[in-house]
Amino acid sequence: MTRTLRRPRRALLAAAGAAALGLSLLAAPTEAAGSAAEPPAPRTGFETSGGARWTTEAEETAFLAAVDRGSARLTVRTVATTAQGRPLRLATVGTGPTTVLLICSQHGDEPAGREACLTTLRDLARARDHTTRSFLARTTVLVVPTANPDGREANTRGNSDGIDVNRDHLALRTAESRALAALVRDRRPELIYDLHEYGATPPYYDKDLLALWPRNLNTDPRVHDESHTLSEAYVRPAAGRAGYDSGIYGIWTDPLTGKPVRQVAGDGQERILRNTAGIKHAVGLLVETREDALDPAEQKDPSLSHRRRVATQLAALQGAFAYLDEHRGRLVAATARARHAGFADQGPVFLGGADNDPAEPSEILQDPPCAYWLTGAQYADTGDELDLHGIVVRRDGDGVLVPLRQSQRALVALLLDPRAAYGITRGEPVERC
């Protein structure tokens, strides 16, 4: 059966055209263009091909270097090297006290978010309008344009070892996840925005955009609520204004009633980045664009589908930046309070459950230990990972003591408790410190 469009084709093509032109997310097109004497803006391989193909690794390298040369605002550096020797790059634009981190294409076969990140970097770096300059004076935008370079080169979900990077944010087995953990530890972003794509399951699961906040129950309530607001009051409405429909990631809905039918993904699993972000006290959001062709026209001309996918990501990003401008004070307050709450060492720690799935009694540490003790051998095996997570330890005899009285209180238990599903070792609970 042929699926019909749910919006006027004119709206779709207009949005896709804006994405192909790489217009500023914050400024009006006339403001973003600059003067006629200004050198032409660097373009990605995606743009030069009209969306017919995705930007290659070599084109990304040349593009970022050209944008870096042309703007004093942008810096690009390599923060890690993959197993196959490819660079994992971090691009930084803006100098403000509020930090947002964009993670693009953790899954190598989901390229639309990467294209949106690349053109967003360029537009922010080159924009001259007052709105964008004011935004960048108050915001530092960190972008990892390709979070899985080996997977992108091979067009595979996992990295070159077949590991799903987005299931590795606790164990940190991969160079990619280790680099991201160090980045979160050192730069302490208030907002972590993770760009993905998904395969549709019509008619229950085929929105242009799906979004989801951290569902993990260890997320501070204030951080959870701000993440929910980011999704439901900003990102999804921004997509809607651009002509794209949206839904909640992982939930099938009845197309007639709009009521949930089945949950197929999107739980509180702590090793997934959107949940790890919440546990580490950052407002987090996962966004997914529909990668399947919408209709026969997109099937015949994949560039139409490619441009639509990138344009949807750009529309959603516009909503995220609007949230930053309008909720900056609440965002900073929520994350700061969450980061200090662990020092009180009070309340339960949840080893399972989600905000829409209450934890079973066996999944709740109602009265957690005050610390976990690791042998010297255990610490030799896990010390690097604990350090990358920003976990504080102290020497204790021939081992180490890992107290819960620290900013990453819940994370300590998720990493070390013998009952934790994705722990990195089995620590010995200490009841009196």
From TrEMBL:
Named cofactor requirement(s): Zn(2+)
Residues at the catalytic site: 288
Keyword Signal: yes
Keyword check for Hydrolase: yes
Keywords for the protein's UniProt record, in alphabetical order: Hydrolase, Metalloprotease, Protease, Signal, Zinc
InterPro entries in the record: Peptidase_M14, TAT_signal
Signal sequence interval, chain numbering: 1-27
A Pfam match: Peptidase_M14
Domain Peptidase M14: 53-318
Similarity comment text for this entry: Belongs to the peptidase M14 family.
Protein's UniProt name: M14 family metallocarboxypeptidase
Organism: Streptomyces roseoviridis
